[in-house]
Write a structure and sequence with these properties.
alpha/beta; seven-stranded mixed β-sheet; 11 helices; 46% helix; globular
């Protein structure tokens, strides 16, 4: 495994050690409940096509699952999905495996933190080509920890601003503070590297303290939490569902 994979989490064999993925059932259950309860804006808007983006898509397996779940939950409303990942090779692999989904290579932290013209932002270019101002759904599963460790509190806030400004429904899977500490040790042991901004993080803490910092920030961006899973995945992580007010 290369140093870049360790530092940014773009593991090339991710689905070998996450083959039993309980996220699918949790995601389906909560989206179905929200849909049936008329609590999803995309249902109230009676959309004829759902625009979905999966940030940190890896090799695309779960991107395709999420798209299928959204189509099932909505009773057959077609979903146009795009996956975004920092790793060119993973995007090429995903494109070959799922040719009906577009995959974009891009570093979300750099995109969100730099003042770049829309033509230089690959996500903006995709949105222009798809003729959309916003996505209906953005997913970010077990990715924000790497953004936080590499970009610090301010980098994470900029990424959250970017995501919140581009979607109606935001679905997050967060990693706990103990996982952060494990990742710092893993990078030091496996690549003899460190995360320079780690010690200065103010958004930190066990027992949900870290997660509350992130949740409260998303709420401050004009979102409300419409669902939170009590069920945990095999990695002891829940899913959070935020919707623009």
């Amino acid at each position: 495994m290369g140093e870049t994979q360790l530092k940014h989490g773009n593991y090339h064999h991710y689905y070998r050690f996450r083959a039993e993925d309980t996220r699918s059932n949790i995601l389906r259950q909560h989206l179905q409940t929200l849909w049936n309860g008329n609590k999803l804006q995309l249902k109230r808007d009676r959309v004829s096509l759902v625009q979905m983006a999966d940030f940190g898509c890896n090799s695309g397996e779960f991107t395709a699952k999420v798209r299928d779940i959204l189509e099932q939950v909505s009773g057959g409303v077609p979903v146009r999905a795009v996956g975004v990942d920092i790793d060119d090779e993973l995007c090429h692999r995903a494109s070959a495996a799922f040719p009906d989904i577009e995959f974009i290579s891009g570093n979300l932290l750099n995109i969100a933190c730099q003042e770049m013209p829309p033509n230089d932002d690959p996500i903006e270019r995709y949105m222009v080509s798809a003729s959309i101002d916003q996505f209906d759904v953005i997913c970010c599963f077990s990715v924000l920890m790497y953004i936080h460790l590499n970009g610090g509190d301010e980098g994470l806030r900029r990424v959250l601003d970017y995501l919140c400004g581009k979607t109606k429904l935001l679905i997050l899977e967060l990693q706990s503070w103990s996982k952060y500490r494990d990742q710092v040790r893993r990078l030091k042991r496996g690549a003899e590297q460190s995360y320079p901004l780690y010690e200065g993080l103010q958004w930190r803490g066990n027992s949900g303290v870290l997660e509350n910092h992130i949740t409260n920030y998303v709420l401050s961006r004009g979102f409300e939490m419409v669902s939170e899973s009590d069920e945990k995945t095999e990695f002891h992580r829940g899913l959070l569902f935020f919707q623009a007010k």
